[in-house]
Amino acid sequence: MAEGNNMLLGILAVILGILVIAFPLLSIFTASVLAGLAVVFLGIWLLAQSFGTWGASKAASIAFLILGLVAVICGIGLFGHILAFSFLASIALFFAGFFLIISGIMSLFAKEGTAAKGSGVIGVILGILYIILASFAWDPYYLALLIGIWLVIDGIALFFVSPSDLVNTKKSEI
């Protein structure tokens, strides 16, 4: 049964990936609307937290209030704004690439052994790849293409990985 679910998720991911590639602006618009709504709801929850913590800690309550207001304003600004969503995705990829490069370089110098040096080199290479992808993610069309390709690859990978293998791997790590 679990393998059937895995196959179904793989098929859904491939179909969704193809749809994202076929309709890039509609897909990115939808993603920006969902992200904007999520941030607005987070802001509303933080505002509610600010009123709930007023009696316990006025400083925490004011921090929740400020953070909630900022989240609501950012969520409204992100809601349906394709360029803002592309900008945030690109910035996240730049940060991830930067940290991968730095941690890879640190691994090269701090660790001993071939495997450690190899993981450092892989970290630097992946960091450079992330930065290259981030430069493409500025454009909503390329961002949709990157997301669609990732969904298709992930969906195909789900065809070849059985959930029981994942469970057995996690049990052996514990």
UniProtKB/TrEMBL annotation:
Keywords linked to the UniProt accession = Membrane, Transmembrane, Transmembrane helix
Under InterPro entries, the record lists: DUF308_memb (IPR005325)
Respond yes or no to whether keyword Nucleotide-binding is given for this record: no
Pfam families reported for this sequence = DUF308
Q: Which domain of life is it from?
A: Archaea
Record field: transmembrane: 7-25, 31-48, 60-79, 85-109, 121-138, 144-161
Q: Does the keyword Plastid apply?
A: no
Name recorded for this polypeptide:
DUF308 domain-containing protein
Task: Record the organism.
Answer: Methanobacterium bryantii
